[in-house]
Description:
By secondary structure, the chain is an alpha+beta fold. It folds into two domains: about 5-205, CATH 3.30.830.10; about 225-405, 2-Layer Sandwich (Cytochrome Bc1 Complex, Chain A, domain 1). It has helices at about 45-50, 60-70, 95-105, 110-130, 135-145, 160-165, 165-175, 195-205, 250-265, 270-280, 310-325, 330-350, 350-365, 370-380, 385-395; strands at about 5, 10-15, 20-30, 75-80, 85-90, 185-190, 225-230, 235-245, 280-290, 295-305, 400-405. The strands form two sheets. The chain has a six-stranded mixed β-sheet with strand order 1-2-6-3-5-4, with helices on both faces. Helix 9 (about 250-265) crosses helix 15, helix 10 packs antiparallel against helix 11 (about 310-325) and helix 11 (about 310-325) packs across helix 15. The mean pLDDT is about 95.
Amino acid sequence: MYQTHILKNGLKVIHQQVDGKAAWCGLIIGVGSRDERPEEEGIAHFIEHVIFKGTEKRKAFHILSRIEDVGGELNAYTTKEDTCIYASFLARDYERALELFADIVFHSVFPEKEIEKEKEVVIDEINSYKDSPGELIFDDFEELIYPDYPIGRNILGSEKAVKGLRRDDIIDFVKRNYRPGRMVISSVGDIPFDKLVRLIERYFGDIPGDPAVLVRERPGIYLPRQKVIDMDTYQNHCIIGNVAYDYTEDKRLAFSLLVNILGGTGMNSRLNLNIREKYGLAYNIEASYTPYSDTGVFTIYFGCDAGDLDKCLRLCRKEMAALGEELLGYNQLRKAKNQMIGQITLASENYENMMLSSGKSFLIYDKVDELEAVCEEVGGITPELLRQVAREIFAQDKQSVLIYK
């Protein structure tokens, strides 16, 4: 059972008390790479690195040691719409973790020397990413379908942009965006909720809040595009996909089920059974759906031999078309629902995943749906709704294609 609280400065708190000695806690900030100005490309991710490099009272070593000295782990990530600082630790160390979060998020000093060192680290990360075409192609695909819009830019930024970042830029971005009203502290662990709230009030309650609203540039009208990039790779890598539903769309859960049927993580997905198991054309083929605040992305990714590319594309289109033409039978739909409900239930048993997902849900929707409610909603999805969704998103004339050769 989730418990929630909102501080006077707007910072939100969500907690689930569970038995056990371990605990998980994160500070989720509703700002990411799409919120950067043109001259700030890559800065949200870069701050994720340098925020650990020193505060008004701690050196970098002391920040990293604060949690790890008691056996915990401190980590962070950046997406296009949020940034998260999170940790796993023993439940007895909640105060240690919360005090550290407040220190690094609101009192980092971003030393010039550390900034210059970390630029090289991030540039190495960018270059490493370029050596992984199966990962890089997803970012290039979003750039293809969102041309000239912040949401289409790579989260890491470019080498040139990272080299040009200055300390003043970092401080300005943090002051502009790291505000309590855009934050959620999410927790899963064995601590009474009233005690957790008192600790959060102690370390975060005096931070000034304001009603500032984050305004994002909405992507323009989507036009399908096709692009081939010569990457000199052994395999061809390909993504075929479309824009999809945003966070607010009621049909997003039905579409998630449809994507799971088409090419989800299970080996029994239609794409895997057809393209890998029946024809042996691809080692890895998967479909995915990523919703954002005002748009979403649907993709099918596969890697194959150059001579098999056209056949793989034809088979992908055939499977999408079938889902838009035929109603799923009772047994097919029942099995698909049971599979998705099982996946959701198993994911909920991972407490770190629970902490991150509930925090993000509370940040976006001001609520978290209980597991039983989500499973009930999945159970109510009809064949007619799935066919309608397939016709809206899987229509062949709406698909963009990106190929690495």
